[in-house]
Write a structure and sequence with these properties.
elongated, 14% strand, alpha/beta, six-stranded parallel β-sheet
Length: 350
């Protein structure tokens, strides 16, 4: 017994000598005195400017509380995805991704965070259960109304004189459009098509000779689409996914043929009727009145559209909408907060 007391006193003396250098040793001595040789060191204690990364029961409780808080807040921040569906009027309506808190990444970021800063919630997108591809052969007239994006779909079957002016306006405003090429036009204007492609615009299929697709036999309708598809692939290296029927004329067989070729049949939400050359003011009035999230705007390379393009872009951005390609607008991907346009005070959005 006397030896044990001497040993204990010795340890206590050593502990007092080392106390100023290490909190860990101090904790060890305390536990020995209390007959607790197996001890745990509390988390993140500092002594004489030295930080020790420690672990223990208090740390586990704090971590449990942190995770609990994150999970509770995550329920409030959850945005459910929207399934794609077939609408009685608008036919195929694309789905739209939801949002949820990435629990694990948020937890790790919060543990590294110092002070009393708000929890650093990190979000991730949640895909809908039903996608466009699951709806079968259905035409698309618009994007999901919850997605604040619209598109210019420019059908090109004749002329080239107004294209440079349209491209200039798109370039100045950093806007990408989708050009649907008639195959017979593309065959004669490959170099101009390459210029459009070099500007970063989406290039797609507008059949070959601008015939009404619903009046053609199955084999002729198939040929109209395939011939232009081959030009897009061989002349421009494009792997296309969209088809816009000439004059908006189609039937169920047309949509089925396009689907067999892995193409989505795309129509429009808003028709500028620019082929009648109504003048820029008429086009702008129509856009100002009818533009909304998901709108696909039908245009052609005409004098009216060239003149209207700069103000059209300002009107659309002024309503808080982003302009993108047709593929971007009908995709379920959410827009990042950084990519959303600021309201343009120059536009009359009434």
């Amino acid at each position: 017994m006397q030896k044990k007391k001497l040993l204990l006193l010795g340890l206590v003396a050593i502990g007092h000598v080392w106390l100023l250098q290490s909190e860990s040793i101090h904790v060890f001595v305390q536990n020995v005195q209390q007959g607790k040789p197996n001890f745990q060191i509390p988390e993140s204690r500092a002594y004489n400017g030295t930080k020790f990364t420690l672990s223990g029961e208090d740390s586990s409780k704090e971590e449990d509380e942190l995770m609990k808080q994150i999970r509770e807040e995550a329920k409030k921040l959850y945005v459910p995805p929207v399934d794609a569906k077939v609408d009685r009027i608008w036919k195929a309506i694309p789905g739209y991704n939801g949002l949820e808190v990435d629990i694990d990444r948020t937890y790790e970021a919060a543990r590294k965070q110092r002070g009393s800063a708000p929890l650093p919630f990190l979000m991730k997108q949640v895909a809908p259960e039903v996608h466009l591809d699951q709806l079968g052969a259905e035409p698309i007239y618009k994007g999901n109304p919850a997605k604040p994006m619209v598109s210019f779909m420019i059908n090109v079957a004749w002329g080239d004189e107004f294209i440079p002016g349209i491209l200039e306006s798109l370039r100045k405003e950093n806007v990408k459009a989708t050009f649907f090429f008639d195959g017979s036009w593309l065959k004669k204007n490959v170099e101009l098509a390459k210029v459009i492609q070099a500007e970063g615009h989406e290039l797609s299929n507008h059949a070959y000779s601008h015939k009404n697709m619903s009046t053609l036999s199955r084999s002729k309708a198939y040929e109209e689409i395939v011939k232009t598809e081959e030009l897009l692939k061989h002349e421009l290296g494009v792997t296309n996914t969209l088809f816009a029927p000439p004059s908006g004329d189609f039937d169920k067989e047309t949509v089925k043929i396009a689907a067999e070729l892995k193409l989505k049949t795309v129509l429009w939400t808003l028709d500028t009727v620019d082929w009648k050359n109504p003048g820029a003011p008429a086009i702008l009035a129509k856009v100002r009145k009818n533009i909304e999230p998901g709108t696909l705007i039908l245009m052609h390379p005409t004098a009216s559209s060239r003149a209207a393009m700069p103000e059209m872009i300002r009107i659309i951005k002024g309503k808080g909408l982003q302009l993108g390609t047709v593929s971007q607008t009908i995709s379920p991907e959410r827009l990042s907060e950084q990519s959303k346009p600021e309201t343009d005070s120059r536009s009359n959005t009434d």
